[in-house]
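Each letter names a residue; the fold follows as tokens. Both lines appear below:
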Amino acid sequence: MTDLRYKRILLKLSGEALMGDQSYGLDVPTLRTLASELREVHQLGCQVALVIGGGNVFRGLKGAAAGMDRTTADQMGMLATVMNALAVQDSLEREGVPTRVMSALEMRNVAELYIRRRAERHLEKGRVVIFAAGTGNPYFTTDTAAALRALEIRADIVMKATKVDGVYDKDPKKHPDAVRFEKLTYLDALNLDLGVMDATAISLCKENALPIMVFDMTIGGNIKKAVLGTVTSTEVS
């Protein structure tokens, strides 16, 4: 068996990562590609948990900025993450990967209610677990949900999949001279406001010494390289 650097991971995806080239919603070919890559990781024996954002369907902060009640807007955002979780579950199971969606909000006909011990048992049995509905509370982002769930299931690392190969001192798409960081401390990530994850998520990881990896998921095979520890990335620790 291939030597894994990380045996249990929490992979954080944005909702926008599921859009492909569309401006809204879900792109089926993108879902299939993601599922195929996750199948390869699963076959290596890595235990995989996912947290997926909902920005491709509805973003709570944007709704609140437009005049909606923040709590209501965030709850709508949580429901958007459930839709994304079900879409990814469907794609994974079409690839033959057993998958469970666990929701922080109770919706018995759609997903299991999140229970930590049950989630760990699913992972031990070789099932991919998708955590939906964030933390179940308004005012907390899916970044924070990812950090929280990773700690609860005792993941080795939080892997944040993005469209760039790490964290830069400025936007590399706008500034050709942008410099990528190989490693950052939690305090650097907080003080320099580099957009790794939100401050609550980074603080949670810092307090519990949970490392964060930021890597580019748009390059085929990079999720597999990430669990093997060979991908180009930035590590926050």
The longest strand covers residues 8-13. The domain at 8-236 is CATH 3.40.1160.10 (Carbamate kinase). The radius of gyration is 17 Å. Residues 52 and 112 are 16 Å apart (CA to CA).
